[in-house]
Amino acid sequence: xxxxxxxxxxxxxxxxxxxxxxxxxxxxxxxxxxxxxxxxxxxxxxxxxxxxxxxxxxxxxxxxxxxxxxxxxxxxxxxxxxxxxxxxxxxxxxxxxxxxxxxxxxxxxxxxxxxxxxxxxxxxxxxxxxxxxxxxxxxxxxxxxxxxxxxxxxxxxxxxxxxxxxxxxxxxxxxxxxxxxxxxxxxxxxxxxxxxxxxxxxxxxxxxxxxxxxxxxxxxxxxxxxxxxxxxxxxxxxxxxxxxxxxxxxxxxxxxxxxxxxxxxxxxxxxxxxxxxxxxxxxxxxxxxxxxxxx
Amino acid sequence: xxxxxxxxxxxxxxxxxxxxxxxxxxxxxxxxxxxxxxxxxxxxxxxxxxxxxxxxxxxxxxxxxxxxxxxxxxxxxxxxxxxxxxxxxxxxxxxxxxxxxxxxxxxxxxxxxxxxxxxxxxxxxxxxxxxxxxxxxxxxxxxxxxxxxxxxxxxxxxxxxxxxxxxxxxxxxxxxxxxxxxxxxxxxxxxxxxxxxxxxxxxxxxxxxxxxxxxxxxxxxxxxxxxxxxxxxxxxxxxxxxxxxxxxxxxxxxxxxxxxxxxxxxxxxxxxxxxxxxxxxxxxxxxxxxxxxxxxxxxxxxxxxxxxxxxxxxxxxxxxxxxxxxxxxxxxxxxxxxxxxxxxxxxxxxxxxxxxxxxxxxxxxxxxxxxxxxxxxxxxxxxxxxxxxxxxxxxxxxxxxxxxxxxxxxxxxxxxxxxxxxxxxxxxxxxxxxxxxxxxxxxxxxxxxxxxxxxxxxxxxxxxxxxxxxxxxxxxxxxxxxxxxxxxxxxxxxxxxxxxxxxxxxxxxxxxxxxxxxxxxxxxxxxxxxxxxxxxxxxxxxxxxxxxxxxxxxxxxxxxxxxxxxxxx
Amino acid sequence: xxxxxxxxxxxxxxxxxxxxxxxxxxxxxxxxxxxxxxxxxxxxxxxxxxxxxxxxxxxxxxxxxxxxxxxxxxxxxxxxxxxxxxxxxxxxxxxxxxxxxxxxxxxxxxxxxxxxxxxxxxxxxxxxxxxxxxxxxxxxxxxxxxxxxxxxxxxxxxxxxxxxxxxxxxxxxxxxxxxxxxxxxxxxxxxxxxxxxxxxxxxxxxxxxxxxxxxxxxxxxxxxxxxxxxxxxxxxxxxxxxxxxxxxxxxxxxxxxxxxxxxxxxxxxxxxxxxxxxxxxxxxxxxxxxxxxxxxxxxxxxxxxxxxxxxxxxxxxxxxxxxxxxx
Lengths: 295, 569, 327
Known about the structure:
With 569 residues, chain B is α/β, with parallel strands linked by helices. Chain B has helices at 2-25, 58-61, 85-94, 107-116, 130-137, 145-148, 152-158, 160-166, 196-201, 210-223, 242-249, 283-297, 310-318, 333-346, 390-400, 403-411, 430-433, 437-442, 454-467, 475-484, 504-524, 529-546, 548-566; strands at 65-71, 96-101, 123-126, 175-177, 191-195, 228-232, 255-256, 270-272, 275-277, 322-327, 352-355, 368-369, 371-373, 380-383, 418-422, 425-428, 488-490. In chain B, strands 2-1-3-14-4 form a 5-stranded mixed beta sheet. In chain B, strands 6-10-5-11 form a 4-stranded mixed beta sheet. In chain B, strands 7-12 form a two-stranded parallel sheet. The radius of gyration of chain B is 26 Å and the shape is globular. Chain C has helices at residues 2-20, 22-30, 32-50, 78-85, 89-107, 109-120, 124-134, 142-153, 159-166, 180-208, 212-220, 225-236, 238-250, 258-263, 273-276, 279-289, 293-321, and strands spanning 61-62, 73-74.
């Protein structure tokens, strides 16, 4: 395909802008990585940019020496895999049901769902419910929390509604049941959406530290992010804490913790999930709808 | 002969145990414990006729107990009990176990959740004020009065005055203070520190008054254009600007920085005569703000006063890029000492000097108090009704405030970093003097000490430092002893001045806070002294319109009540 | 507004009719498989989202955490009145709407534009690299991002000021963080930076579904790449864009929380607070810090009601214009 002059100019602009964007997004990440491999005391002097000045693995050692770190990692992986799978499985099926024309009570269902996106009882009533269901301080709760995501459901539904009816009809004529159509035709076609929303869900679950912080007491059930909050907190030395008078203490904030350690924990927390995307990129391939029946 | 003695002894023990059991069954507090439950009866155990009489040393009175403890701060995570040398000692020798419940960064929500599901821990460590009040009003706390007679060491260590101040609105005592001060020696870490190399290069001029300071800063700006002449600590909760707070203390007699701060637990009112008055009407406030504004205009201060983070400040300090630094905690390990040691490593003649606080003309230099302390200490421990054995927990705390326990928690168990006591002060042994600071920090000595006895520790620490060779002496301790402890005002009488945030006064207070946050920068950034004056006047009027007077009335009443409590009701 | 009530009435009529009309139930049974796909999830939502809904009613009480729901006093609209009459109300509403609107105006198209640009890139390696790197900032917590912002925008030696002075654009450093004028810009820019990469993923997925044959046909007809984007790509992903747009409009009052909280140093940067305080940070300040639980819930409920109104409005407009609708 020969490119015109206009096209070439267009492409140059695009490449230029993308390069700027890459630099602007990459540099802070690289800088954080460098700082995580730099000693805390040296980092406090400032000026560490593209290479560690005082290289050390100490920050990572602190993180990995933490009692529960492997446990927390396993919990997080389990929670993310199980939670994502179940959430996507049920939510997409839910959306498919709601995408069919003529489904009884559909409008009612939709309205009920959308309302939950805006109205919520808040943390305390939810907590009371979970507690009364004896799900407090359990792994089951970690998986069940947020299982059906209305936002995702709407996205799935929109996507499903765009699939040409002819496709499904021809499958049914071949003797497929509705479930069969869903599992054998619709889902495989929906790989981009499935991949995207699985990634979104997985990232959200992976990053969640708040819910486990409030709903769990059992240290062995803590996921990675919540544990890392503890790691950073513990770096506030007890001498500092014990020496505070009634005054100076009202202000000890997390900024007293060492920046290098913060960066190391951030790396440990985000790298695993960050690396998932490149592997699922292939599902975003063009022309996924090839071979479909044209309307 | 021996047999007869043994028989007598066992009969005596039996009588003692029976009597104590019978007597404790009549007590109003716990129903199951006996005070002489220690395995070997000590010589001083007697079956006394008076109920709840104190018997034995505090350590003897300690019972084995396991309890859960929750520390209500976002930024705090407890370590594992038994992992540190001192907690292991307590575990092995006293059979006491503490199970931490972690806030994990979501303290307020966690506390609410625990309240609502009735899953409160046995002990909560938290700030005095609204949370303690609401727990107490809901009947969730155990009153400690029944134990005070039986465990008098606690009252002796804390002091009657403090106990009176700590009583709740129903007159009962629920709070065990942490880092309380029982003498009249205050503590504080607020000071001005001056960069040594620059100071010497400029001829070591006199630095006593604010005029001296201004002249010095101008010299610094001329000769060292990339050094910040005057900088201060990061902005604190409630928009407490440390530069203004520190300077304020020097513009009037007996002023301390907490008077002008709207932060939680602080005053936001200036005591004048017997009333708390508006800060905007205080000439010291006006003077301080005008002075800082002038310095800002002349480029003698950091421009990022309101927004810089602690990391940024510490970076500048560590590189010696601040000529004069003021903060509420400038002499602590985190700021001043690290910077001082860093500079000294590269040049032994460099470092930071702690100087006596600056004062304005006409102000008595011995009445300048940048720092403040409350004898009530930092925060408190409360025992909740969930605790199965509150008395045992209290017995543990009773022991914790004794010198023996304080030594253990703060300096480590005997034989580790100290072998003997001299005048009650642990003498550092070679292991301590030659310690690897990192390994020492990793042992987290000092952790789990939630009933710190400030007077004892500060005094002992000071004496311990003197026992060390001069090179190993701690810059912080020296600075504290020479300057910051001496320039810290006792603000105990000004405690508890925050109106309940849910009340009408509380709502006004929040608005006053918002107003302060917004007007202070305007005052500092004003283009002329007159503009500063007019902004202050305007803010004062608006504050009055919002109801500042009513809030001040409330604060005045609290102040007067406190004075009565402190003078012994 | 009239039409909305009419519609609601129709829905109610139809549903009540269903209860009495046997043919509806016959249809229900015949659709058993679709209903089975739906019902478990609906139950989940009813249990975990609707049972706790009573929390919303707390705004009509003087809720006491210790006494619980049934024992707390009912006070009607007291808290709502207090909120509307508070001097902070108009400022908060203005900030919320302006910040949301700016985020929508700039933050909504940004990921779309990125996706469109990436779609044009033929170099697979470059494309993958760009995709993977640009979505990294999404994983930075706001704690870290705000720290970066503070250090870059500092007046004393901050990176941005240093650069601007070097390029002779300004002579004196600008105190970005201590002036109200810059706050909104800083907030929106950091949000875009943080989310542009991750947000583009959805659109890339949608673009992946466009039939390549359409592009071939267009270029045979002589359309430039630039034109193709406008004539083919954008219209093809229009339904996705519409849905997201509708939801974003419904989200208009969610102007932000973590970002505002941290960029104002936990609400302590008094200089910018008048332009920074939004509904969510106000609810946090009043509910958690000041423990005015019921008051904060009232403010939150107010926000929810307005959001739903906006959502229904946007959806109705979209429905009149095209075929897309949320229900």
